[in-house]
Amino acid sequence: MMASSYNAKEEDGHHSGSASHGGAAVVKSKKPDNTAFKQQRLPAWQPILTAGTVLPAFFVIGLIFIPIGIGLYVTSNNIKEFEIDYTGVDMNSACYSCAKNFSWNSTTSCLCTVDFTLEQPFESNVFMYYGLSNFYQNHRRYVKSRDDSQLNGDMSALTNPSKECEPYRMSEGLPIAPCGAIANSLFNDTLKLYYLEANGTRNEIPLVKKGIAWWTDKHVKFRNPGGNANLTAVFQGNLTATSKPVNWRNPVYELDQDPENNGFINEDFIVWMRTAALPTFRKLYRIIQKKSSTMPTLPSGKYVLDITYNYPVLSFDGRKRMILSTISWMGGKNPFLGIAYITVGSICFFLGVVLLIIHHKYDTRSTGADIPN
Amino acid sequence: MFLVGHSLLTDTAWHFKKKEGKKKNSGWTGEGTVRANTLLNDHPNPHYANNKIKTTKYTLLSFLPKNLFEQFHRFANVYFVFIALLNFVPVVNAFQPELALAPVVFILSVTAIKDLWEDYRRHRSDTEINHMDCLVYSSMERRYVEKYWKEVQVGDFIRLRCNEILPADVLLLSSSDPDRLCHIETATLDGETNLKQRQVVRSFLDLDCEFDPFKYHSVIECEKPNNDLNRFRGYIVHRSGRRDVLCKENLLLRGCTIRNTEEAVGIVIYAGHETKAMLNNNGPRYKRSKLERQMNVDVFWCVIILLVICSFAAVGHGLWMFQYGDKRPVFDVLSPQGTNLSPIMSAIYLFLTLIIVFQVLIPISLFVSIEIVKICQVYLIHQDMDLYDEETDSHLQCRALNITEDLGQMQYIFSDKTGTLTENKMVFRRCTVAGVEYSHDANARRLAMYQEMDSEEEECMSHGGTLPRRESVTSHQSARVVLRSQSTKSHRRTGSRAEAKRASILSKHTAFSSPMEKDITPDPQLLYKVNECSSQMDFMRFHSQPMSQLSSDLSDIIDFFIALTICNTVVVSSPNQPRHKVRMRFELKSPVKTIEDFIKRFTPSRLTSGSNSSSSSSLITNRSSNKGCSSLLSSPSAESTLTKLHEEQSSHLEPTFSPVPPCYDGKASWNLEEGELRYEAESPDEAALVYAARAYKCSLVGRLPDQVTVELPHLGKLSFELLHTLGFDSTRKRMSVVVKHPLTDQITVYTKGADSVIMDLLKPLDTGKRQKKIICRTQNYLNLYAADGLRTLCIAKKILSKEEYACWLQCHLEAETAIQGREELLFQSALRLETNLQLLGATGVEDRLQDGVPETVAALRRAGLQIWVLTGDKQETAVNIAYACKLLDPEEEMLTLNADSQEACALLLEESLHYIQAKFLCSSADQAAKAFHTNFVPCEINSSSSLSSHNTSPFLVHRLGLVIDGRTLAYALDKTLEDKFLEVARSCRSVLCCRSTPLQKSMVVKLVRNKLKVMTLAIGDGANDVSMIQVADVGVGISGQEGMQAVMASDFALPRFRYLQKLLLVHGHWCYSRLANMILYFFYKNAMFVALLFWYQFYCGFSGSAMIDQWYLIFFNLMFSAFPQLVTGTLDKDVSAETLQRLPQLYVNGQNSEEYKPYMFWMNMIDAFYQSLVCFFIPYFAYADSDVDLFTWGTPITTLALFTILLHLGIETKTWTWMNWLSIIFSITLFFTVALCYNASCPTCFSPSNPYWTMQRQLQEPLFYLLCLITPVTALLPRYALILSHPWCRSSTNKYSHTVETINIISFKRLIPRCAFQI
């Protein structure tokens, strides 16, 4: 990339010889050591920027970046993604009435059904996400409002949650489990996906709800107090009586039937607790596993999405989406990085060309005039 | 005795009051009373300071509060503590309070420990001084007992022995010296190594027996403690009511050393911090470097930026909340109390929160890093072999750790002369006697031998000295003599170090005793003549022939050497007992004795009438006339009415050799016993002349106030009766002694002085052909000497008849006893004596410059530095040296300012100003051409580039030299004139202030520093330079022979003046450019990091949230990104040392603050802005609408920022050593190691981020690596491209094969924005 010119100077330790003879060596001299470091003569590489070194650098960057970019772009484009907004803002949308009438205080669920069509079959495993927009899960006070010790199954934290959970720490004199605003605002819509066969029968697609959270979260960070056995007893015991979060319908020990997915280790809950970085985000909801190698996971055709509409977002102008997506080695569909690589690579290449031209122009213009010596 | 104390008390109190009225008009500043401390239980002077000194800043108790208080002077520290404390307020806190406190505490404690250590060192040196021993009279035990210095109190009697250092300011009451004198060496005080005589208080002069403190019951009234070393006024009131005047001749100052006096007793007048030495010692000043001041401005800007972005975000937050109205969304959490905050309140809280979050913008680690880098720089400077002096085995010492970069920005240098520019060693070179030149070739060869090794290193430099005195450019001394080029080097490289060391130890005992100065090789021709002459005289004496039969040539020679020997104030000491005065009072056994002699010898007080009385008092008078003469007269007095019937032949035919020394026969044995004698003189050249005379066997053996003994070849010891000494003063520019010649018995005046004066005072030319010839020839040789850079002195004599002498004596005595205008009268009297002189010869003495001074001065000049010399020396000497060290150029004009009143001074300044304007501004075009022309004559190397340095100085500097003396300086420094003075001074190329006091030196420095707003450096070696060193921005002490006072006060201590060149040009440049770049980089780094957080506010509802884990936030600066910049800040070299020394012009870079201009700060801010945008938005888009969580997203951003920042540093680094590589690799490794450990350590801790396993997962993601590749490249692309394209640097392709000049040009180019894009 750059020409290297080593201006290292060889050590010249010959001068000190004269001082030491004749018994003068007894007196310890304060003379500084003649080492390269102390004399600031360390061998140094001085990058001298010359056209010969700089121009190839630009081209090399360009030549590396553009293929990467193309690769990324292609990969991203191969990813199949389907997204449907079911917030119900529009009068015509199926969930309009649910959205209109629903609030956190409602006791009954509102059901709505959305039909959609997949134009292309989804071949590999399909990841089902729910997406929220304008939901500031990264708000400073919101992010803080949790107690990791409690979620890790610490008994003392269960009965006496951290102050950070305020004002969602105690409810009716009892500690809230799980405490805090994040838990309190748990996304609680239920989505069910049906394949609408040609004859009109709804074929429920099996949605796997395990394996959607980080392994470390599920097994290390989140633990139920007193193990997974008999959660009801733990959360409602005499000494450890807790209250459910204000906005929740059911207490934490009734999140799921499966004891391996109940309580604090409920994966939907764990996923929710990992607060999103940006106000528009998606969270993994279910996985649709590929059944056989011949059949696509989701063949093209008509589908029905059954929504148990529990989660109000209209008050803050939020949106709810259901996303179906396959993923690649680099994650979900996102053409940005590919484009970025191509762009930067091109700029470098272009700059290299421009510099080359200037160099040539300059070189011809000044050969005669500029060598004074 | 004890009753006396009481009665005394009331008595003096009354006296005190009574005298009040009188004292007012005598101009006293105030007075204090000192009583003897002989009372048993009660201390009579309780309100005076005791002798304990304390220069430390802290005590154990006060350390913490005081140190913290001082640290909080630094605005940033207050800010950080404020931020840390803010974190404890729940409603606004952003981080864990304890965590946020950590960096502040760390930084404060590092600084505190450093301060503590420095103070401890001061404390140790204080204790050492306080615990020195001295003998103090104890009234209990009625004897002198050993006490510590700190126990000495005002009023104590102190017995001092030879070679002891004075613990306090002491009034001399008794001395073992029969003349009641006490010799002191004031080297530590004013830098003068010669001996000074102090006198016992007049009323105690006649004490024949030993002084008994118990019999003392007088009271001393004196001035309030002040810092004027040259003034002391007071009265001593005896019990009888008699009052005697005290003057500075009676006062021994703290820090001086008793020499040549076996024992002295005195009473302590001022003690401890009230002593004049301590009062002159202004305490150390906290120095803040210019760069740091500049930086503080930008820190201030950072604060403004911080406030702006915080307010912006706060408003944003308010609006964000406002848009939701009453419908509070679930993610907008209520306050802990459950209350609903209004948008406005919430915005205010958020403002404070953001200040915490964005605190990194004010670079907390910057200050720590700067300190660390400075310590490393100091270490490297300290280790530089080029700044190591083998002779003294001493390094450069950096005593101030925080102003290294100031060395690179100096604009004015204020230098002391003696011991700084010169070695303070005078060497006799050649002489001319009676018109015949004796070139002393052997001597020159000997001197040349002393520097055989030097000549290898530095060749081609000619020492173009010129005439010593020069009022204008009149003489075109183009014929520069290069003869001397070899001899100017010192002897210091001659032998092994051990030998040199021995020599330097010896020279500590006696001031002028290096073999170079002592062992003059006589000129064989002259030696022969001297021998012949004295043998003839011996013969004549033996045969009782009159001396007048001697040929005039030979008599001139012998007179010349006698004059050299006796016309001075040299004190003789013997080497066996160094610093002991050799006293040989030759009893005048001869029957031929005058009555006066008789009276003299048997009268206890020598202040009675008679010829000798004046000689003893002359000690006082010559001093007072020295300092006090205020007239500017230089013309020989017209009223010299004494008609001279000058005869060469004495009319008296009295026995010619009346005083026969008693030990005449035992002369040889005496000589064997005593060995070589040592001479100590007030000025080194006096000693040089005495040593020169000794080389011709004409040696000074003893000096008493009234008698000088000289040993001559064949003639043996001769005692000259010393009738008068008219001491040297700068107005007369000469000194004279009046003696009675023992051989001829004539009253002879020997005068020694500057050639300009003596030549005017010679007998009118028509007196004789021979004289005419001598004068003419001597003048020729004088010119030659001067051109050779030697200090010239003329020697003349005059024979007075008894009547003339009696007549003159009459007047002189009148003058001495006069009450009004005594000094003026004495001056007139001296003028009357020193007329119609007969020229004997002239001498050339070399005031040896230190090694490499002219080269250093020239190099510093070319570096655009203005050099002023401030010296306590007399004007001629100073001018002479200035020529020798190329400070003044023979081709340039010299303005001399000597005024004796405020008005005259004002007038002079006005005139000079007009002159300058008229001369240079009106005919500027003509002058410019001329200046251009003359400029490049002395500029041998790189004349092409010197143009640039001349352009850069902020005002036009003419080729003018300004010489100003101390008194005029005092007027010029007055408030009303200082501006004019500066105006004149700054348009001169070099300024020379002579005869300036320590305080004046510091005033000049202060004036220039404050008025011109320039960076000043003061360099000096003696205690007289201390205040100047302390006032300057950078004080440099020469750790030479003159004690350690200057070194103690300095910021840097050099063994030699010439090391200043490398210190400034290389180390100063490096330190400055390194620090400047580092500071800029710091601002960039922090701004870039903070901007990442700021962009995020747009995506988190301006809630003050941070995607970067708080640990990363806080330790990013302190740990992850700290080391590479420290290495670069310590080791980076923009230009090599060789180039910097070869091209002093590069120094201008620092003077003009090229590396760190205000706009650069903003450029860096903009770059930081851009880079942060890239580092934020690439991950933003890459993760847009994904399931990434907050801190998983923040981790790659932190990593990217780190990579970008390190790569940025890589672009800024000019030289890469393995240390740079190592530090960068280390930084990255450290970050990942810490991140991995931190993310694996605890699944439940570190709320709120709780980053368990985040980094581990990230490292498994390809996306992470893809981001790490593209983001730094994109972020740094513009900077890289800009640097490349900035000046599309021109050069030839085959650059490596080019000459030195090309490389110089390249590196010079590289310096500006590092742009050597070579094609």
UniProtKB/TrEMBL annotation, chain B:
Main location: endoplasmic reticulum
Domain P-type ATPase N-terminal: 44-98
Name of the top EC class for this enzyme: translocase
Record's keyword annotation contains Ribosomal protein: no
Cofactor(s) named in the record: Mg(2+)
Sites where the protein binds ATP: 416-418, 686, 728, 752, 791, 871-873, 995, 1001, 1024-1025
Extent of Polar residues compositional bias: 474-488
Superkingdom per UniProt: Eukaryota
Membrane-spanning residues: 299-324, 344-368, 1079-1099, 1111-1131, 1161-1184, 1190-1209, 1221-1241, 1263-1282
EC number: 7.6.2.1
Coiled coil: none
GO biological process: phospholipid translocation
Active site: 416 (4-aspartylphosphate intermediate)
Molecular function in Gene Ontology: ATP binding; ATP hydrolysis activity; glycosylceramide flippase activity; magnesium ion binding
The protein, known as: Phospholipid-transporting ATPase
